[in-house]
Amino acid sequence: MNAIVSVTASQLKNATGSVLDQAARAPIKLTSHGRTRVYLVPAETFERLIALEEAQLVRRAQSARKQGMIGPSASLSLIQGLVDAPTKPVSQRRKVAASRPPKAAKTTGRKASPVEH
Fold this sequence. Notes:
Layout: E1 5-8, H1 9-14, H2 16-25, E2 28-32, E3 35-40, H3 43-66, H4 72-84, H5 90-99
Parallel strand pairs: 1-2
Antiparallel strand pairs: 2-3
């Protein structure tokens, strides 16, 4: 693989046509203030990358389904059911929390020593 050509933002501004012509043939690294900002890649390269990502997502979805995970429509139904589920008003939730017995104090496993006053 050839080294990637680096172009500054100023160079892009001053020679846009030339830089775009170069980017149509090979990737170009665009920098600004010494930092890489973006890469310009040929359209064909970008389209292949998108196709590879989509194929990977399809493989992952197929694998998940084989492992027993639910599909998109079942997921949507489950989420919709959770969204539509009735909820208790906040005032009732506080009453429930207040009616719970207090939590037991944590013990350290050591015997308590008598306290002298």
